[in-house]
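Usage example:
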Amino acid sequence: NAGVMQNPRHLVRRRGQEARLRCSPMKGHSHVYWYRQLPEEGLKFMVYLQKENIIDESGMPKERFSAEFPKEGPSILRIQQVVRGDSAAYFCASSLRSANTGELFFGEGSRLTVL
Amino acid sequence: AQKVTQAQTEISVVEKEDVTLDCVYETRDTTYYLFWYKQPPSGELVFLIRRNSFDEQNEISGRYSWNFQKSTSSFNFTITASQVVDSAVYFCALSEAYSGNTPLVFGKGTRLSVIA
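Running the assembly step on the lines above writes:
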C-alpha cells in the first residue's frame, strides 16, 4: 500500500498522559499536513511541515502540541498532558509539491480518546 | 480569508432519489481549487473531485455530477439515483493558489443518509 500511513488507528489515553501520532507520507512526498476533526465537525488545519522544517503552524494550539518531520522516519504529532477536549480524529495528508495546489492525499486518521 | 459553507447539516433521502449537496465558498484569489471528499462510516477521507477556478465546465462521473458556478461562488454536488452505500459525510473544500500556505479549508460537512 503506497498511500499515506497513519498509526495508531485508535489510541486511548488518560488525562495527563502523552499521545504520539505517526504519519508516513506517500513515497516521494516531502510535504506533510496535520488536520484535526472534532466530533461532528469538519477538518481543521493544524500544521504544515516539510522535511525538518515547520512551514505553517498557525492552526496548532500554542501549548502541549508539537509536530516534527525528521529527515528520516515518519512525521510525529505529539500531544502532551492530554485533556478530554483533545479527543478527536487526527488526519495526516501528504503532497508531492508545495501547498496551494491542493493535491493532498489523506491517511485513514488516528482516533484519540482521552478518558 | 477563505471560507467554505455547507448549509445542509444533514439530509435523508430514500434510495433511488436524487440529492444535491450545496457548497458555497469565499475567496479573494482569482486562482483557487475546489474539492469534494467523502467520509464513510469507516472514517477515512475519500477524494472525489478537484476543480480549478478556470474550469467552469460541469463534470459527470457515473452517478455523481458537479455544478461549478463562479457567479454564485457555488460548487454543488449531485448524486443521481442514490444508494445506501452513498451514506456518508461529504466535505467541500477550498484551496487558494497564492494566499499563504494553508492547503485546504474544509466546510463542516453534510451528513447524507440514504434509506433503503
